[in-house]
Amino acid sequence: MSKTKISDTVKSGRILISDGAWGTYLxxxxxxxxECPELWCVNRPKDILDIAKSYIDAGADMxxxxxxxxxxxKLEHYGLADRVSEINEAAAKISRDAAGGDKWxxxxxxxxxxxxxxGDVTESELYDGFKEQAIALEKGGADALxxxxxxxxxxxxxxxKAAKENTDMEVICTFTFERTxxxxxxxxxxxxxxxxxxAALVAGADIIGTNCSNGFERMIxxxxxxxxxxxxxxxxVHANAGLPKNVGGVDIFPDTPEQMADLVPAxxxxxxxxxxxxxxxxxxHIKAIKRAIENL
Length: 296
Hints:
alpha/beta, TIM Barrel, about 45% helix, about 15% strand
């Protein structure tokens, strides 16, 4: 599959399955508060490979990489600013090993934590940071980039441009939306789904979508809204296992694999082409999603 573009496969009519959570999975494996998750790609590669393989074994057509916080802006907090290329290349190589030659690796690029609107970073600095990460992920063997959990349009656009202008990979761009008291969906910066997605497409994104913050039930509404303005571009959804509940100081994601699987037909009918999980999801959730798609 990796020799065929993801977008071309989707346009042929096939519904694809992505992977599940990485962050919450790492926590179960012992990641401690304040520890750099991405450094595990160098220091604990067998644990990262185990996560990646577990999703492939569960039936995922594509897997991400342990590189969500792999920009220089995030890594500098751990004193790792000079190891961006090393860590990201290692992240992609591990997922490539797990995926083999017939599954896709969609390398993760998350937000930097910097905001242009308050002037704590320049456009050129953001662009260069995303460029450095994207090049390293491609060198490690990724097929595509998954620029995800974006809330600021300007940051998402710069990430897409840096990827498209400096690599030959397909680019996925997803934003995260919260439901307002008026039952509308907005990013943290106030952008609507259509505003955010259209900006990503103008910047060159091949696949668009939404991830995190919501379970499948709310994702259905977001996809429907996107499809009113953008009917033909492939849409990816990485949903949480429901809305988190704090139990004893710990966030618990309540949706079982069966509950998520029950909503797959409605998510597909809304116009979703690629379905996977975000926070709180596991290989069991991906197995259930796969069965639901096979039964459509």
